[in-house]
Amino acid sequence: MSTLTVSRHFVEASLSGARRMGLDTRDLLQEAGISPDLLRIEMARVSSDQFSKLMQIIWQRTDDEFMGMGPRRARYGTFATMCALVIGCQTLEEVYQQAFRFSRLFDPMVTMELDTRNERVRLVARIEGTIHDPDYFLRESLLVIWHRLGSWLIGQPVELENAEFDYPRPDHGDEYRHIFHCPLVFESDCIALTFSKRFLSAPVIRDKPEMRQFLKTSPADLLSRPDESNTWTGRIRGLIGRDFSKPMPDFDWIAQELHTSPQTLRRRLKQENTSFQEIKDLLRRDMAIYYLSHPEIAINDIAERVGFTEPSTFHRAFKKWTGVTPGAWRDGERGDLA
Predict the structure, then answer these.
(1) What is the number of other CB atoms lying within 10 angstroms of the CB of residue 226?
(2) What is the pLDDT of residues 11-23, one digit of tens each?
(3) What share of the chain is helix, strand, coil (3-state, %, to 5)?
(4) CA 153 to CA 303: how far, in whole Å?
(5) Mean pLDDT, to the nearest integer, of 76-95?
(6) What's the predicted TM-score (pTM) here?
(7) Helices first, then strands: H and E counts in the chain
(8) Which residues pair with 203 in a beta bridge?
(9) The predicted structure's pLDDT at residue 338
(10) Which CATH number describes the domain made up of 232-334?
């Protein structure tokens, strides 16, 4: 069970190409188990499971892994074919070189190219032709998929030193903090990810059976469910757990469990663009949203489950997180939003 959530913005942005192609987006949402009414809430979020399912539905219905946003169609199965090629590579460097060679077979080209001329390596987006990407979703997806695929193949996160974008900071730019976990540079001269050269020699540890299993839900899961197990944020989420009926562990205890000092841990979290308080708040928010999707659980019980002794305090916190009360959120999920 994943309790991670995805911003309404990404749900709407993912549908822009399908809408341009004339598909019924309400139908796509309902097939993915997402209430179109819920999306009327400005700060709405959906579960990562729902978002993953929506991605797969869009790819299948459009027969296009660029979801109607690219300069051409990338037929359903293109990503799987690329993965079948790179699983035979020995190192991460070979993976990225092979993936680039595969992607450049298609014209116009939409890919990431490895630039190893400096000590700091860059994966640079190469997009030819005209794209239809008003919300930057195609460009974001390209970076996320290539980065997370590489990390999965070597069994460790490729730690990013910065992420660059050749456009101004978008309205949803705050979400980037939780996607890339590194300093962000907007209005750059390119779209790129920078990381240390040491990752290039990391061996590929996955095999063909693992890849077959991975492809059952990818690249949808790469977009909706980041592997945070080796980020400081992810480790802290794991230590806090999901049972908020017990007292929340304090920061000093967390630092001790992670074999680091509180000062170092604060610095690490700052590098990942977050804080201990934000991690706790977002965990509670995501758990509350998860429980609200289960109508048999009373809202007052949800308040207690996510660590609030007073229902009124929970209502205030939830409204701060989402802009609406828990009751209005549940109405939106049911399609009863006034």
Answers:
(1) 22
(2) 999 999 999 999 9
(3) 50, 10, 40
(4) 40
(5) 95
(6) 0.84
(7) 17, 7
(8) 91
(9) 54
(10) 1.10.10.60
- What distances in angstroms separate CA 35 from CA 14, 46, 53, 145, 187, one per listed residue? 15, 9, 14, 26, 35
Tracing tokens 């009124």 back to the chain, one arrives at: 312
Stretch among 125-129, 228-232, 283-287 having the lowest mean pLDDT: 228-232
Closest CA to 321 of 98, 41, 3, 30: 41
Q: Which amino acid is at 318?
A: F
| Residues 45, 178: Cα–Cα separation, whole Å | 14
Structural tokens at position 53: 């399912």
Q: Report pLDDT for 77.
A: 93
Alpha-carbon span 222 to 52, nearest angstrom: 9
Which ranges constitute the DSSP H helices of the chain? 8-14, 16-20, 25-31, 48-62, 78-86, 92-103, 137-154, 176-180, 208-214, 220-224, 232-240, 251-257, 262-271, 276-292, 299-305, 311-322, 326-334
Choose among 210, 194, 66, 41: nearest CA to 5: 41
Beta bridge partners of 46: 6
pLDDT at residue 229, rounded to an integer: 59
Q: Which residue, chain included where needed, has tokens 């709405």?
A: 44
Residue 226: closest CA among 190, 288, 181:
181
Which residues lie closer than 8 Å to 14 by C-beta, 6 or more apart? 51, 54, 55, 58, 67, 137
So where are the chain's domains? 5-71, 78-208, 232-334
How far is residue 220's CA from residue 233's CA, in Å, rounded to a whole number?
22
- Alpha carbon distance 313, 268 (integer Å): 31
Q: Are 39 and 319 in contact (CB under 8 A)?
A: no
CA distance 252 to 280: 14
Write phi, then psi, for 260 (nearest 5 degrees).
-145, 170
Residue type, 210: E
> For 107-151, how does the pLDDT look when each residue is reduced to its tens digit (9 = 90+)?
999 999 999 988 889 999 999 999 999 999 999 999 999 999 999
